[in-house]
Design brief:
The protein is of the alpha/beta class and 277 residues long. Helix content is 19%, strand content 27%. It is built from six helices and 14 strands. It has helices spanning 50-58, 78-81, 106-112, 190-196, 223-233, 249-262, and strands spanning 6-11, 32-36, 41-44, 68-72, 96-102, 128-134, 139-142, 145-152, 158-164, 176-180, 202-206, 237-241, 266-268, 274-276. The strands form two sheets. It has a seven-stranded mixed beta sheet. The chain has a seven-stranded mixed beta sheet with strand order 7-8-9-10-11-12-13.
Length: 277
């Protein structure tokens, strides 16, 4: 049987968490999205939202207990890795956790998650933690899923990811998503990014800024650029996330309504949202 993908939003902010009353409708945690493909649980980035996802996994709220987890990191900026400091499955000796990041990342990550910045390091947890280094433009596999990487346009570099299902049963169409956070969509990267996300079912987009607020050189994009890229790439839908921490619920609600008028296939991420492909 061909398995649906359930994509759950656990964190939506960039830079830092913002747990204040006027940020709770969309969410205050930094970026984290899970992709439940049935046999695989893939996690896109490990922001502070990863902690709630980890508690959900530990409580068995995903149905069967998940013992093999795959975490894909776009880069090591703190807003994308801070959830690793409090991820309950690390304490499960039966868990097998695979962490993927660009080449030459892991000695830096092991410095962050460990003394003197944290009391325990990755090698100290009871879980079996496996580290995988990825090159730009690499094709890799995750237990039947096909993965692809592309270089993002971001200070210090970042990886963008595309995930595709393997051969579909009974002639069903393949499923795919493209994860394009922390990438400034200027002329240097946009043609390649459009091709990378061509015909994807879901494009997950960096909406750190509006067009009026865009700051060139900061390595982020706007929701307006995301809509244009969705249309050019012929992606089925686009999900905006990685909001600037100063964007309140009322501001984002206004942006969401304006974007929906321009493109009904545009959606704004909220913590707890589930999208099924």
């Amino acid at each position: 049987m061909h398995q649906n993908w359930n994509i759950t939003v656990w964190g939506v902010r960039g830079s830092a968490p913002r747990a204040e009353a006027d940020h709770l409708e969309f969410g205050g945690n930094t970026v984290c999205i899970s992709v439940d493909c049935g046999e695989n649980l893939v996690i896109l980035d490990a922001g502070s939202g990863l902690s709630a996802l980890g508690r959900s996994i530990a409580a068995g709220e995903h149905g069967e207990c998940r013992q093999r987890i795959h975490i894909l990191l776009s880069h090591l900026h703190l807003d994308h890795v801070m959830g690793l400091l409090s991820f309950p499955p690390f304490f499960d000796p039966s868990a097998e956790i695979h962490i993927y990041a660009k080449v030459a990342s892991f000695h830096k990550l092991e410095t962050l998650v460990g003394p003197p910045f944290w009391p325990v390091g990755l090698s100290d947890f009871p879980a079996d933690i496996c580290l995988h280094e990825l090159w730009v433009d690499e094709h890799f596999s995750i237990n039947g899923l096909e993965g692809y990487t592309m270089a993002g346009n971001h200070p210090g570099g970042s990886l963008l990811y595309r995930l595709e299902s393997g051969a579909a049963a009974h002639g069903a169409a393949k499923k795919s998503l493209t994860y394009a956070l922390d990438c400034e969509a200027d002329a240097s990267v946009l043609p390649a990014l459009t091709e990378f996300s061509h015909n994807t079912d879901l494009l997950i987009w960096d909406a750190s800024f509006t067009s009026e607020d865009l700051r060139p050189g900061w390595g982020h994009s706007t929701w307006e650029q995301g809509i244009r890229t969705r249309k050019a790439a012929q992606a089925d839908s686009v999900l905006m996330t990685h909001y600037g921490q100063d964007y309140s619920d009322s501001f984002l609600r206004t942006q969401e309504e304006e974007a929906a008028r321009i493109d009904p296939a545009c959606h704004f991420a909220k913590e707890g949202m589930v999208i099924t492909l």
